[in-house]
């Protein structure tokens, strides 16, 4: 008696076999096309022509490799923001927007606060001061961190203003 599990396993094996056969057929057809193209190239280019004089046409494999390399290069640029920042300067924040107002208030609150502040507390204070709600605090704080590197995320959901405090220590009058 067939169980549903055995039927599914059998179907997977059939699909696997069909996939292998299809790949084999495609490979054979591709090889036939390549051989026909080689024959046509040999008919168009007489044998007497030297290799130095022949125009080198890139094969499909070479083109695919070049494309893969360009994708890897783009991936590395995205992974390393220092490279990207030198190529594409950051957009400046738009003045007068809701998020800009939120960011300014957030910076003021972080300046006034001595230590770390929880993101939820910061959100409540910003909303209370601006009268406008923040839909997604994580996204808002990521934008704030992007435009203001002096703000740091110290731990999960905790933020602090670093450079301002360091400058205040350095600017204190020495005796």
TrEMBL record:
Biased amino acid composition, Basic residues: 89-101
Repressor Rok winged helix domain boundaries: 103-159
Keywords: Coiled coil
Keyword presence, Coiled coil: yes
Lineage: superkingdom: Bacteria
Parts forming coiled coils: 5-43
Region called Disordered, residue ranges: 71-101
Residue span(s) of domain Rok N-terminal oligomerisation: 1-41
InterPro entries per record: Rok_N_oligomerisation, WH_Rok
Name recorded for this polypeptide: Transcriptional repressor Rok
């Amino acid at each position: 008696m067939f169980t549903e599990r055995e039927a599914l396993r059998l179907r997977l094996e059939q699909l696997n076999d069909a996939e292998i056969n299809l790949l084999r057929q495609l490979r054979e057809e591709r090889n036939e096309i390549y051989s026909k193209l080689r024959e046509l190239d040999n008919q168009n280019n007489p044998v007497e022509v030297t290799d130095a004089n022949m125009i080198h046409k890139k094969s499909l494999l070479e083109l695919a490799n070049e494309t893969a390399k360009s994708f890897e290069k783009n991936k590395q640029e995205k992974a390393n923001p220092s490279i990207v920042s030198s190529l594409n300067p950051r957009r400046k924040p738009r003045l007068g927007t809701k998020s800009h107002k939120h960011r300014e208030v957030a910076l003021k609150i972080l300046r006034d606060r001595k230590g770390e502040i929880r993101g939820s507390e910061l959100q409540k204070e910003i909303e209370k001061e601006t009268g406008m709600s923040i839909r997604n605090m994580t996204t808002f704080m990521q934008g704030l961190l992007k435009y203001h590197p002096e703000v740091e995320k110290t731990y999960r959901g905790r933020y602090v203003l670093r450079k301002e405090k360091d400058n205040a220590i350095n600017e204190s009058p020495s005796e």
